[in-house]
Specification:
Metallo-beta-lactamase, Chain A, 9 helices, binds zinc ion, six-stranded mixed β-sheet, alpha/beta
Length: 253
Amino acid sequence: MDIIPLPAFRDNYIWLLRRQRAAVVVDPGDAAVVEDYLQEQELALRAILITHHHADHIGGLKELLTRHPVPVYGPAGEAIEGVDHPLRDGDAVPLPELALRLTALDVPGHTAGHIAYHAPGLLFCGDTLFAAGCGRLLGGTAAQLHASLQRLAALPGDTAVYCTHEYTLANLRFAQAAEPDNALRDAYRLRCEAQRARAVPTLPTTIAEQLQVNPFLRTAEPAVIEAVTRHCGQCPADAAACFAALRRWKDAF
Ligand SMILES: [Zn+2]
């Protein structure tokens, strides 16, 4: 199976999974982008996966369904027209055409009903976790997003993480402020800058890599707590409070 990033809008990726002539897409915000690739590669769309209700993730759904009457998986907790397989935490998504079986994970925070799709070694996390960052709070709470990120952080380190936006370099500028001294992060930044200079996606990343560089997964690190304390003028009571303060800081960064 191959996993292809289809760039859409300014900085979205629609991830397309393909095996032989079968394809599955995650968060098709733009139908034309998907349609063009399917035609060019002579692929048959077999399913659509949705992580949350935002327009840049579902905008192409209706149009794709007019040409491809395929099952659409999505979060049970969000009302999304076209989703006919609502998923709750732990529900299976069998994709026999790809020889793949994904599992839905509840990861609220960016939105209240956000889900991710997981299989051993693979994670499609929508707008929950980004490379060196995380989603904004647009419906869920900081406590929810913190818990969701902790859950993703506990996945095996070699899990490939397919995020839906190319935000990495901007996120790394904030990461530098939130944790000034981090040699692994600096090396990661150089790699990402070289990739972007060649217009190559910085994704997927891995859980192990994000544990080293992503301040939102490092809210128990003394250096991050120190930077948050300096910024807010108050020491956060615990990792959850540190996360909430870090998220507010980034919103205004
Ligand atoms: Zn979103």
